Amino acid sequence: ARDLLKAAEIEVIVEGTPPPWGVMHVSNHRSFMDIIVLMGYAPGTFLSKAEVADWPIIGPAAKLASTVFVKREIKDSRLAARETLRELLEEGASITIFPEGTTRSPLDELAFRTGSFEVAAETKSKIVPIAVEYPRVSDAWINGEPVGAYYRRVFDRPMTVHMRIGPVMEHEDGKKLAKMAEDWV
Questions:
Q1: Do 85 and 116 meet the contact criterion of CB atoms below 8 Å apart?
Q2: pLDDT tier at 92, thresholds 50, 70, 90
Q3: Are 97 and 114 in contact (CB under 8 A)?
Q4: DSSP string over 108-161
Q5: Are strands 127-133 and 159-165 parallel, antiparallel or unpaired?
Q6: Of the candidates 115, 119, 84, which has an alpha carbon nearest to the alpha carbon of residue 101?
Q7: DSSP secondary structure string, 40-83?
Q8: Burial of 69 per CB tally in 10 Å (0-12, 13-18, 19+)
Q9: Hey, is 9 helix, strand or coil?
Q10: The predicted structure's pLDDT at residue 25
Q11: Residue 97: which H helix or E strand, with range?
Q12: Pick from 129, 128, 127, 130: which is nearest to 163 by CA?
């Protein structure tokens, strides 16, 4: 991931201490580039909506990275994804989630969904909030823009991404843990 960022002339400015292994990274989601940035500086298994598995280039890469896919509209799929996250956390793996559930502009932030935080609380796992921001608003992906058009646009010029890594957090209540992370981000 770091080699790809370098080749694409994407500078990542990291603030904060790199997260320890075996935690759940929780990040806002501004762009498809977030995934590459997080893979380079806070690696872990990603949780993703199932549709991503069928996307060109991104889907095969996500599968190679052992991404956990979930069909959010199907309860059994959500339950299976939660169980997989639980197993991974109990095994000491790092997990990366985007609790807003989709990419958003800085002006359209969504409340964090709590399901993964409940798993973290139940397994007594720690989380690390991460804020990813693009100084040029045009570098963020806008929902509805074709993925190919976005990549052509952003790979056409150098880019800077700011990644702020927060403190390690834990709480026995998943909803409170989600709120703590959301407030930090």
A1: yes
A2: very high
A3: no
A4: G--PPP-HHHHHHHHTT--EEEEEEE-SSGGGSPPTTS-HHHHHHHHTTS-EEE
A5: antiparallel
A6: 115
A7: HHS--EEEEEGGGGGSTTHHHHHHHTTPEEE-TT-HHHHHHHHH
A8: buried
A9: coil
A10: 96
A11: strand 95-97
A12: 130
Amino acid at 92: G
Confidence band (pLDDT; 50, 70, 90) for 103? low
Give Cα separations from 164 to 13, 108, 183 (angstroms): 8, 19, 14
pLDDT band at 105 (very low <50, low <70, confident <90, very high): low
Structural tokens at position 17: 């201490």
Q: Which residue has the tokens 């694409």?
A: 8
The Cα 1–Cα 164 span in angstroms is 18
Two tokens at 87? 């197993």
